[in-house]
Known about the structure:
The protein has a single domain, classed as Growth Hormone, Chain: A (Up-down Bundle). Helix content is about 75%, strand content about 0%.
Amino acid sequence: MSDAQQGGPAFRxxxxxxxxxxxxxxxxxxxxxxxxxxxxxxxxxxxxLSEKAIGALNGxxxxxxxxxxxxxxxxxxxxxxxxxxxxxxAIAGLAGALRGIGPDVATxxxxxxxxxxxxxxxxxxxxxxVAHWFENHAGxxxxxxxxxxxxxxxxxxxxxTALAKQLGSxxxxxxxxxxxxxxxxxxxxxALRSGKVxxxxxxxxxxxxxxxPDWRNKQMLLCGCILGCAASLYFTTNAFLPDFLNATxxxxxxxxxxxxxxxxQLPASILLLVFADRxxxxxxxxxxxxxxxxxxxxxxxxxxxxxxxLLVSALIGMCASSVLILVxxxxxxxxxxxxxxxxxxxxxxxxxxxxxxTPIISGAxxxxxxVAATAFIPVVLSGxxxxxxxxxxxxxxxxx
Length: 400
């Protein structure tokens, strides 16, 4: 039983350097990605992109997250988790900095895809580190790095417009965020060389050579589908909220709405730092979140009040982050530490492949109907499916 479950300090006996590095890596899982939504009006104007293209731009890295997770699993199995994480940070940082070079559509999409590959490599590394560094505190450690992920989303959303104005281009603003990934690489290498953290997961020393997921594993399939619903909710709302507010005469509030959407995730992550070990694996929290999502997105789509738009944006953010934490904490519980990388890769492949389609469908609905609210129909459906799948969730932890 974890300390959190016993009522003691959640971080008792943990390596705080490892927690800090997990948190920093969490920031870099999203900061380069979520710098894009507030800049969409500028990108839209400069490159004359259609709404379907905007959906594809936001959906492309999500697809790469899914497919690239398999490559990430292979890399982890062959080189170890630390080297794979550093490789992912380097690829994401370099490609993220080059997205605005030109600027032209081909460069933007190519570098966005490469950036997505770097993040895809990082993603199975995170639960693998949790399994090796925090085997008895998987919920708390997962909530820690997801909290970092949410901070990365918030700062990317909140500061990108100001950076673009200061630098005179949206490309320069995107390049600035890659500095954080370089800092992450340097901090990780320093911590390893100074002995502050251990180096888990070298081939033959903590990871099996297997990297291909077991597609017959029902637990993995269910976790992946639930992740797909949560990611569809989050990425599609981020992608279309700016243009939706512009189309409904509330364009002056785009930055505020995106900040509320992403900032609303923090309270949920803080609560789950305390309660994650008690809630992970239970159906009722996910069912409740799914139903709350349906109601929130419906209000967002049809309310004309900016206050209600801001409020439900925050609620949507809370729902999305809660599901993310509860799902990402499952691989270290359901798989042996040496197998978490390919179990996680399967979850990410299924989840992000599903969520890739949602922004494109949303954009196509908007283009076809010329009604902005139709972009949120697939998001409402994602919430309903999430509630239904959560009812099937039963956790049978791995055998000791």
